[in-house]
Structures are given as C-alpha cells and as structure tokens.
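tool=predict chain=A
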Amino acid sequence: MTESERHRGASAAASDLIIICLAAIAGLILCAKFDAFEYFARWSARHDGWMVNEVLLVFVFVVIAAEIFSWRRRRELRAEISRLEIAETSLHGQEESYRIIVDQAPEQGPHKRALTEYERLVERIAALGQALGTARDLTVIFRALRDFAIVSLPSESVVISLYEPEKKTRRLCYCWADNQEYDLDSLPDVPVKDGPTGRAIKSGSVVIENNFEQHARTMQSPITVGEGVEDKSLSVLAAPMTVMGRTLGCVEIQSYQAGAYSKDHATAMRMAANLAANAIENVTLIEREQVKEEQLRQSQKMDAIGQLAGGVAHDFNNLLTVITGYSELTLRRMSKDDPLRSNIEGITSAGLRAAGLTRQLLAFSRQQILQAKVLDLNVVVKEMDRMLQRLIGEDIDLLTLLQPSLGQIKGDPGQLEQVLLNLVVNARDAMPRGGKITIETSHKYLDEAYAREHVAVQPGHYVVLTVSDTGIGMDAETQKRIFDPFFTTKEIGKGTGLGLSTVYGIVKQSGGSIWVYSETGRGTTFKVYLPRVDVVIESEELTDGSPAVRGGVETILLVEDDESVRQLAVETLESYGYVVIAAAGGEEGLRICSERKGNIDLMITDVVMPRMSGRELAEQLAAIRPEARVLYMSGYTDDAIIRHGILEQNMPFIQKPFLPDALALKARELLDLPVLQEA
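tool=predict ok
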C-alpha cells in the first residue's frame, strides 16, 4: 500500500469516529428533549436495573454501527463505479488506437488479408448470383461458374456435368481447359463411380483430392481434359450442384499443383455450385414450357391443316364418285374390243389412285370412319411380317421383338396395318445402302409428370409400337415438318408426302400419340402409343371372296345435294332394277315421304347437307315411315359429327367415292335384313 493510500485510510477512520461521536451526542440530546431518560428510569425501577441498562446500551451501539457500515458501503460503491467509468473510457481509447494501427498496417498483414479476401468473395458471390439470375441458357450459366472458379481458386480446367439419376450416369456438358473450351457432343454419358465427381454426386458434399495423380493412374478409363494433364501432379475439387435436396450435376475443378485446395475453397465453390443449380433448374423449367408451347402450336397447326385437308377431300370425293362411277358404267356398256375402252380404263385407274390419296387425306385429318375392334397388336405385326420381308428387300435386315402379354388395344386392323406399312417403307427409303429395321412392341405407363410435359397425352397404360432404322436420320427442321401433308424429302415422283401424315391421322383418331427421335447420320425411331383397353370383344369372322351383287324391285329414296353424284346414284340403282325417287335436299326428301302413298323401302342420304342434315331427316322419317331403312353416305365425316350423334357406331354407312357395285351391294344388304316385330 502506498503512502497516499495509507493517508486516505487514516482519514477515513478518523471521519468514522467523528461521525460516531456526533451520532451519540445527537441521540442523547433527543432522549433528553423527549424525557426518554425519565420514562426509562420509571420503567427500569420496575425491573432489574443493570440488565435493562445493558440491553439498551447494546441496542444503541448496534444501530449506530449498522448505520455507519451502510454509509461506508454506499461510498465504496460510488467510488467503484467511478473507477469503472474511467476504465471504460480508457478501453475505448485503446480500441480506437488499435483501429488506427490496423488501418495503417502493411497490406500483407494476415488479419487484414483474410478480411479483404472474405469481402472480395462476398462480392464475387453476389455478382455470380446476379449473372445467374438473368441467365436463360445453360452455356451462359456454365461460363459464369467457370469465371467464378478461375478467380476464386487455382483452376487449370473446369468440367461441368449434369446428373441423370434414373440411369445413374452423368452427361458432360461443358469443358474449359488450357484457356479454351472443348466440344463434348461426341462423348458418351459417364457412369457415376467412385471418383471425386462420383463421390460428390453420391454424397452431396464437396470432395477434395489434393493428390489426384495416384488416383488417376488406377482409373480404368480416365477422361483426359486438356493437354498433358496426366503428366502432372493434380489436385481436384468436385462440388455438387444441388437444389431442394436434389443433385442436378457437379462442377469439377483441376489444378496442376498438388495440395492446391483447402476448406475455404470448398466453401466458396459450394455456394457457387448451389447458385448454379438454381439457375439450371430455372432454365430447365423454361425449356420445358417452351417445348410444351411448341407441341401445342404443332398440334394446332396439324388440326388446321387437317380441317383444310378434310374439306378438300370432301369436295374431291364427290368429283371422284362421278368420275369413277360413270367410267365403270361406261365400261359395262362397251365391248372388249372397243378402241376407246383403254381410255376409259385409264380414267378409272386414275380415279381409283386419286381416291386413295383422298383416303390418306381423310386419315390425316381424322375425318374417316374407323372400323374399330379390340385386338392384339402382336397379331397384327405377325401377320404382316412376311409381307414386310418381301417389301424391304434383301439388303435390309428386319428384326421383330414382340413383348408377350402385351395387352389389347382398340383400333381398325386395316388402318393399323397401314401405319406399320408406312413406317417400314419410310425406314427402308432412309437406308439406300442397306441397314437394319427393328419392329418392337412393349407396354408403357405414362404418369402425370410425362403428361404435363406432352400436350394432349393422358396418363395411363399404353401399348407401344416402335419402328427404328439405322438410316440417314433427320435434322431438327425436317422433324418439325414430317407429318405435314405433301411434305417429302424424296425426289420428285418418288413420294406423295402423305405417308407419315396418314400415320399421324390414324394414330390420333385412335386416341394415341406418335413421337419421333432422330439425329443426322444416326437413324430414326418412331414410337406409337396406343391406349390399352381391358374390355374383350369377340372378333367377327371374316368371309373370303366377294359376294355377287343382286338387284331388286324395291323403292329407294335418294337424297343428295350434289347434282352429279345424285344423277350417278340414280342411274346406278335403276340399272339394278330399283325404283328410285331423287331429292336435292332434306326438306324435299321429307316432303316426298309425306306426300307419297306407296312404300319407301330404303332411304340413301348424304350426311352433311344444307338446312337439314341426313340424321335429322332420318329421325323425322322414322315417325312417318318406320319401316324404311336408312343408308348414310358421305365424303366427309369427322369426330365432331360422330360426337353430335349424326353418325353412331355400326350405323349403315358407305364412304365416297364408291363404285356402282359397292353402292348396289350395300343397298341390297340393308333391304335383305329381317324385319323386327315390336313386342
């Protein structure tokens, strides 16, 4: 204790003594003033005097001592608070001095350098996030991630791959090495194994391999990036790109230095890789939406073309009905040695070929009547196998792979044969130097996720028909137009451009979908998805041979708005002995039915007519002539007409253009049906 401290202690003791004396004097004065001693004397006279005085004295001194102690303690606390305030002021002064010292310290100081590096890393992360937030292309994302890696850690090469979890492979999408980018399109997908990238993808954590040279020597099929990498000691850092717990891919960074990477590098790349993963997810979602929009536009375009093709086919069928009909009637009246017979036969042949084209147009536009049946697609393929073998030639191998227990579909057998035939012919023409065609059937369940990504596809079970070839393939622009009518890549005169459009229409009208996968020089694959059905319908027995056409003497009402077709039909039916009454429209036909007193055994009516359709006419005819049968005919029928009840399944129908014998045969079949008696 210093001299000054002892002096302060003695002064404090003297002060305490003086205070005690003053307090005692003040107490005595107060007791005398209030006669406390007199009251106390009378009280003590009644008790033991010495004991009372002793207690009183002790009490007085205890009170005085407690008061003095409390006063001293308060004074010491005030002094302690003052000392703390002085110390705090001094500490603030030292901190300010320290800051000045740090700011004036040289740049290479460890603390200053660490702080500066952290601030720069935060700035780079912010800049990367801003760049990735506006990215709409994967290449832009990859380059931004590369630029961040080059600045943030030792980087001689950067390889970015995207992960395919279903296949457990990764696709190399971007590579930068030796200050240049490399094309990776020719590289196959890489299985995810136990290398740094594989471990990072599996674990979802950053993997550092600071002595990669030894590990690279043990790899069975290393992927070399850049030049001379295998001759140098490498360090590798692999950072997985994850979003919402899912790993989308991995960025692998290599350095030619051993021991190049630390935990700080891992932290930086983990943040950057996750930002890139979010950007990749956004771009992927945008691309999916663009694909769906493109599919919708393609579907709308095909519908519009189909409506146009259906309208053209409808009008053209009326003309072909007249051309082929009158040609056939003329040939019947000509002798075999007539010099003009060959000319008429040429007209008939051309008309039949034109009728085949219109049928293809109707198939494309989905405006034909399908004779749908429940059938096994494997049976259809087996029955066509021998014919397809002869069709494709000896320089092409045909391989058929049929999955057993395939399930059943509902479709028109003849139309499905047309689908298979057109696809195989198209594959054959794509392999002028020979090759291989594979026909495969399989079962596939399309879930909600698949349906969301593909327009007009319903979730459910499907039977899949796949036709693949090893031909020349197609580029992206050709694939966009292959289903358009009259579009062909073949030479003039070697194709009508209706083969694939016919396939498209038949598949769509059957409730299915068709997709094409092709690359130039790598062949083409068509996949046809047809809905699987569980209902079993007994198949109808087919009879061989064409039945003889018989005539009759019944009365037939013919209602047709096209004058040329009407005249041909009247002449045809009259040639078979029938009594024919012609009407130019539904209202006229209804009036004839009301006014005529004789029987009307059969009415043949067009489906689509002005003011009154064929179905409306038939309904009103049933009320007037319930015994009359009805045969519908049309060159234009579509799904909308069927849905609105103008045509129902299994109703008597004949498609234009038709030959005279076909019309007479259909009429005879209806007239020969037994009459059903009402109960």
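Residues 263-333 form the longest helix (71 residues). The chain is about 50% helix and 20% strand.
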